[in-house]
Amino acid sequence: MPDSRTIGEKLEALMELRGITQGVLELRSGVKQTTISGIITKDRSPRLDTAVALADALDVSLDWLAGRDRKHQPPLDPEQLALLEAFDRLDEDHRSVLLNIARDLAGKK
C-alpha cells in the first residue's frame, strides 16, 4: 500500500522514531529549525536541496521521503539497527549460527 503521508508527516514520524528534536535535526542537516517546523506544519514545501539534506540526516532515501519509492521498507527502529550493526561485526561462522537461531525462534510462536 502506498505511503500517502506528506513530507512533513514523514519527517515528524522519523524524528519521533529516531528520538530527535527539530533542533537536533537542524544540527544534523544544516536546515534551519524554522524551515523544518514549516515543512512539518504543511506551511512550506521543501526545496530539493533542503529535502536532500533532511533525507540524508534521517538516513532515508529522497525517493522514500517524497513518496516515490514504493519498495522501501519503513526505517529501522533503534533496536533493529543495533542488531544489524552487531551482525555486521560477526565473522561468517557466527553469522550462520545467529541466523539459524533467529530462524528457529521466528518459527516458534
CATH topology group of the largest domain: 434 Repressor (Amino-terminal Domain)
Shape: elongated
Overall pLDDT level: 86
Report helical residue fraction: 55-70%
- The CATH superfamily name of the largest domain is lambda repressor-like DNA-binding domains
Rg (C-alpha, Å): 17 Å
**Sheet with the most strands, sense and barrel status:** none
The span between the termini is 27 Å
Strand percentage lies at under 5%
What's this, in brief?
This protein has 109 residues and is an all-alpha fold.
How is this structure best described in words?
It is a single chain. The mean pLDDT is 86. The protein folds into 2 domains: 7-66, lambda repressor-like DNA-binding domains (434 Repressor (Amino-terminal Domain)); 78-107, no CATH class. α1 crosses α3 (33-40). By secondary structure, it is mainly alpha-helical. It is built from 7 helices and no strands. It is elongated.
